[in-house]
Design brief:
Layout: E1 5-6, E2 9-10, E3 19-20, H1 33-37, E4 43-46, E5 51-54, E6 76-77, H2 81-94, H3 97-101
Antiparallel strand pairs: 1-2, 3-6, 4-5
The chain binds iron/sulfur cluster (2 copies).
Length: 102
């Protein structure tokens, strides 16, 4: 189950989830390793012909990048951690102090 907040900020406002480079992704020739690897239901296979998608980006654990290791084509990337951290800090400041404490 995805967490609903991270550092007091709604998870849905945090841009952290895999970005798939479809020029590189070969769908692991029909056996997508990233989908098998991630236990959080982030990925899905949709469409016809089947295509790997990031169906549930908010299920991705903030700052996890583990599935990159299993991708044989280096097709997965993430935003810069430092930029996302800066955004989280900005969002925290914008929220009421009571909300940040939660
Ligand atoms: S980064 Fe971690 S949580 Fe996110 S999709 Fe990959 S394995 Fe799953
Ligand atoms: S592991 Fe890499 S190549 Fe395989 S389906 Fe996932 S993104 Fe595509």
């Amino acid at each position: 189950m995805a967490e609903e907040t991270y550092m007091g900020v709604p998870r849905s406002k945090i841009p952290w989830s895999p970005i798939i480079d479809y020029k590189k992704c070969d769908f692991c020739k029909g056996d997508p390793q990233c989908l098998k690897f991630c236990p959080h239901g982030v990925y899905a296979v949709e469409g016809n012909p089947p295509k790997l998608t990031v169906k549930n980006p908010n299920n991705c654990v903030v700052f996890c990048r583990s599935c990159r290791k299993v991708c044989p084509t280096d097709a997965l990337s993430f935003h810069q951690k430092s930029e996302v951290l800066a955004l989280i800090q900005k969002l925290r400041l914008e929220r009421k102090p009571e909300a940040v404490k939660k």
